Amino acid sequence: MLTYSFTHIISISHIHVSLVGHHRTAAFCAFTGCRLADMTSDLLAGRHGHGAASPNASTSKGVGDSSVSGSSSKALGEEEQSVLDETTRILSTRVCGSPAVDGYAHVLPKCLEQSPTAQWWSAYYKGGGKQQDLVVHIEKRSDYDGLAVFWGIKNTKNSSAECGAQCLAHQPGIIKGPYENLPCNAFAFCPEDVCFEPDAHTHTKGDCWLKFTEGPVMPEVNMRGDLPDSFRSRHAKAPKTVQWESGVLLPPGVPLRNGTWGPRWLW
Prior knowledge:
This protein is an alpha+beta fold. 25% of the residues lie in helices and 19% in strands. The longest helix is centred in the first third of the chain and has 13 residues, at 78-90.
C-alpha cells in the first residue's frame, strides 16, 4: 500500500533549478498554445509573476535564474491557469502500476508509452516544445524510482546538476532497449564513494541514472532522508541517511510534490 505525503518529509530540502527567462517562456507557450510574442509582452509589462515551482524549495543560482515565470495563480489568466492545472493533473497520473511491485517483472513498455505522462511528452514535442526548456528539480538525500532509459553504472557525472543536464539532453530512440521510446523525465545521482541501494548492483561515485517515471509530479520514492531502524534492520549495509540525489523534469510552473513511497521502500 502506498502512503502519501508524510509530515516528516515536508522539511526535506529541494533544490529547484530552472532556465533563463526566454527559454522558460518558450516552453510555457509550447504547452499552453500561447504566442511567444504575447507572453513576452506580458512579461515586460509586469503582468506575469515569478515564484518558486516547488513550495518547499530552496534555490540554486548555479544554472540560470531560479524563478519560474507564471507559477503564481494570481498572475495567470484563467485559460493559462487551467492548462497548468490540467498539466499538473496529467503528470500526477499513474496508470501502469508501480514498476517495483514485483521486482519489475510485470512492466509493459507499451502501457508506459501510452500512459498520460508519455502522451503529454509526445504532444509537447509535436507542439514545438524542447526537452531543454523543461525545469530541473533536484532533491538531495533521496532516491526516486523509475525505469532506466540510460544505464547509470559507469555513466559518470560530476554532480546531480550534470546528471539533470544529461536528462535534459536525452531524446527517445537514441538508446536501444525496452524503454527506448520513452523520454527522460527523472534521474538519480550518486555523490559518494558508494551509494547504497537494495539491489544486486554496486553503485559508485558519479553514477547517473536516467529514468522515465509516470507521474513525475508525484514521484515514487525508494528512500528519503534519515533511514529508520526498521529499514536498516532489513539491510545491514544501509547508511543512516540516504546518499542519493534525485530529480525530475517538469514544465515551467508545474510543481514537484512530495510523492509517494514506492514498493522498494518495503524491500
